[in-house]
Protein: Release factor glutamine methyltransferase
Organism: Pseudoduganella flava
Amino acid sequence: MSALVAPGTTLAALQRQPLLDPVDNRILLCHALGITRTALITQSDRALTADEAARLSTLIQRRLDGEPVAYLVGRREFYGLDFSVGPAVLIPRPETELLVELALERLPPRGRVLDMGTGSGAIAVALAHTRPDAQVTALDVSADALDVARRNAQLNGANVRFLHSDWYSAVAGQTFDLIVSNPPYIAAGDRHLSEGDLRFEPQGALTDHADGLSALRTIVAGAPAHLAPQGWLLMEHGYDQSNAVQHLLAARGYADVQSWHDLAGIARVTGGRAGDGCER
């Protein structure tokens, strides 16, 4: 493969005629050279060495091949915090911050919260970092994902109890004031699974290999046995699933069932409260 960037190319030239989207180009430049965004401006006349040009060329080619920028640099910001990410976990996305905000509004002082399918730990770590008084437990069936999540908790000084668990199996007999989840909700065969960043992310964290609702059904069915009286269940889901998830909650007797929209106007999170008629 011929080099995409020649030795001696200046930072100014790389930014005037980027090979990638300007934002991706800037992120990869900073990462490859180990410099800040400010340095891209103040060192605009800097010429790349042969090693730097080769390193940047490799990163650019991988991005042109579709690999997510977050995986290339190994990090992504979420809820104002820095998270380590890699192919074992989904890349945290801004729309999931809505789930964190809704959870914080409903989390009582010294409350107990359970994050199911924690992945990178983004939700659990954001909650524990923002509310250090809370008792945060996070579950995942993937041991590799839990390793990433533990690193992120340590990186952000968050106190989270991590458990290897197939949904509720590791928390039998335990109750929580709040249960949150961003489970696999893309239906098998959905074209999005073969497009963009999703091609590189762990498929088991994206799709339930069924109709997109099977994980949500499991969470809804099991939550009443683990929710304190009046405790909330909040779940992220697909852009077209809010009505179906509301129906699942209502059929199980949850109270105050409703959906909330993200900044793009998409019904992104649906939840309900454990009421007197909630089936256990």
Q: What stands out?
A: The domain at 88-273 is CATH 3.40.50.150 (Rossmann fold). The mean pLDDT is 94. The two ends are 60 Å apart (CA to CA).
